[in-house]
Amino acid sequence: MEHFDLVIIGSGSGNSLIDERFDGLRIAMVERGVYGGTCLNVGCIPTKMFVLPADYAVSPAAAGRIGVDLQLEGVDFDAIRDRIFGRIDPISSGGKQWREKSDNVTVFTGTGHFVERDVMEIAVQGEAEPVRISGDRFVLAAGSRATLLDVPGVNDPEVAARVHTSDSIMRLPALPASMIILGGGYIASEFAHVFSAYGTRVTMINRSERLLRREDDEISERFTKIISERVGLKLNQQVTGVNPVDGGVEVVTKDPNGIEYGYEAEVVLVALGRVPNADLLQPEAAGIEVDSNGYVVVDEHQRTSQPHIWALGDVCSPSQLKHVANHEMRVVQANLLHEITGTGDGLVSSDHRFVPHAIFTDPQIASVGRTEQELRAAGTPYLATVQAYGDVAYGWAMEDTEHCVKLLSDPEAGQLLGAHIIGPQASTLIQPLVQAMSFGLGIREMARGQYWIHPALTEVVENALLGLVEQADTAR
Ligand SMILES: Cc1cc2nc3c(=O)[nH]c(=O)nc-3n(C[C@H](O)[C@H](O)[C@H](O)COP(=O)(O)OP(=O)(O)OC[C@H]3O[C@@H](n4cnc5c(N)ncnc54)[C@H](O)[C@@H]3O)c2cc1C
Ligand SMILES: NC(=O)c1ccc[n+]([C@@H]2O[C@H](COP(=O)([O-])OP(=O)(O)OC[C@H]3O[C@@H](n4cnc5c(N)ncnc54)[C@H](O)[C@@H]3O)[C@@H](O)[C@H]2O)c1
């Protein structure tokens, strides 16, 4: 049995962990799928490369409001798809080849699972017998996978060929005429924007009454209304079955009154969340604790319940975001180097205080901190302000009527408690607010202690901050 100093399972954020400081160690990299993981191959990168053309495709509406007559002549889905994967696929295969050539890293292509606390068995692709390796230390970077649809009819081969997850939907051989999207979260919303902008007739089926329900209510309500102008929305519906129909699939649903509906489309996208891949690792064989939702349990240093096993990213973090996986990777990297080579003063900890996210729909959405409904439920006193884009100069220029920045703070307008933005450039506008929260910058200092470029869209953030200050001062 081959022995390694370090065994890493998962080549997404796990691959970034290995740098020249690990040159003296014998490392095994175990990867069951496409090299480079979710973000590169089927996640953040390709989706956002699909979003940008979609943003252009919907821009005639915004241009028309300010007197520019743009006409969309069409969207070349095949060219977009081939350009995107023509760039991504070589990065993935090149990354794998580069690792395979490395003197100190052995790449195992196959699914690994524990058989003992320091022994892993790998079903290596193309090999008749599984391989066993042992390790001094392990890093679990095994990510998550799409939840599959589990209703009657889904295993019918004609249906199965037309039911996709985010892993396959971006590689469709041609743009479908119609698509049903199941779910109302990040993936459902981003692909609803993409495919409806490209010209597909999109129907979203969601079990609750609003999309993006975990966002602040203000944002979720606005988004649900705005996107309903571009896609068919079927809310409060539970999927009960799927059937093959001529040229497509029928999705059968039931509403809260028990009334049944049937919707047909050429293809179906299942976007019902992602489950951690911890189960594939058979963590019980190594004595690794897993929580009730299937996530590997880690302490603040990203160490699992087994001192020689560390975890990072989607396999242990319910936020399921790449910037979180990257952050945790750096923590594990520093802690491994500390333990193995004595680098640094001690173990470092992850900082999960203010994790932002952005949803690349049209309009964009970005958020950090707590929502108003969370503060209310917790009984935390707060101030809230909603600043319309249309009330600042750049928003006037855009003739904006729909978008806003919502800020929440303590009652003295001292510190921000949450920031939520819906509208153009939201993913960029949120960053100074993330910075303020992370470094404890007070609202008054932030609003008045710096210049805000006039007439940039950042004035919508400045005015929102001033709105909180004014409320606090009025209440004194
Ligand atoms: C469609 C989509 C869009 C997204 N967009 C964004 C975005 O815009 N911004 C953002 O922050 N996040 C986004 N995410 C989330 C982001 O992609 C993930 O949070 C991130 O990639 C997780 O990284 P990771 O290293 O934990 O896991 P991964 O990158 O998933 O890597 C895990 C790897 O482990 C392998 N593996 C699993 N089990 C085993 C095993 N037993 N043996 C061997 N190998 C195994 C898997 O094949 C995989 O390659 C998106 C996700 C999806 C699906
Ligand atoms: N821009 C980004 O950062 C980005 C983009 C895409 C994905 N992601 C990550 O990927 C993760 C997965 O995305 P997602 O959209 O699949 O998950 P999600 O958790 O955002 O949304 C899941 C949706 O499915 C619904 N749902 C779940 N189970 C259901 C059931 N049994 N019946 C009916 N509806 C059900 C939920 O109500 C929700 O609307 C996200 O949590 C996010 O962290 C991030």
TrEMBL record:
Pfam families documented for this protein: Pyr_redox_2 (PF07992), Pyr_redox_dim (PF02852)
Residues of the Pyridine nucleotide-disulphide oxidoreductase dimerisation domain: 355-464
Domain FAD/NAD(P)-binding: 4-324
Residues that span the membrane, as ranges: none
Recorded GO MF terms: dihydrolipoyl dehydrogenase (NADH) activity; flavin adenine dinucleotide binding
PROSITE patterns membership: PYRIDINE_REDOX_1
Signal peptide bounds: none
Cofactor: FAD
GO terms (BP aspect): 2-oxoglutarate metabolic process
Disulfide bond annotation, renumbered to this chain: 39-44
Amino acids binding FAD: 48, 112, 314
Keywords: Disulfide bond, FAD, Flavoprotein, NAD, Nucleotide-binding, Oxidoreductase, Redox-active center
Gene3D superfamilies: 3.30.390.30, FAD/NAD(P)-binding domain
Active-site residues annotated for this sequence: 454
Cofactor note: Binds 1 FAD per subunit.
Residues holding NAD(+): 183-190, 273
InterPro entries, per the entry: Class-I_Pyr_Nuc-Dis_Oxidored (IPR050151), FAD/NAD-bd_sf (IPR036188), FAD/NAD-binding_dom (IPR023753), FAD/NAD-linked_Rdtase_dimer_sf (IPR016156), Pyr_nuc-diS_OxRdtase (IPR001100), Pyr_nucl-diS_OxRdtase_dimer (IPR004099), Pyr_OxRdtase_I_AS (IPR012999)
Family under the similarity heading: Belongs to the class-I pyridine nucleotide-disulfide oxidoreductase family.
Name this polypeptide is given: NADPH-dependent mycothiol reductase Mtr
Organism of derivation: Luteococcus japonicus LSP_Lj1
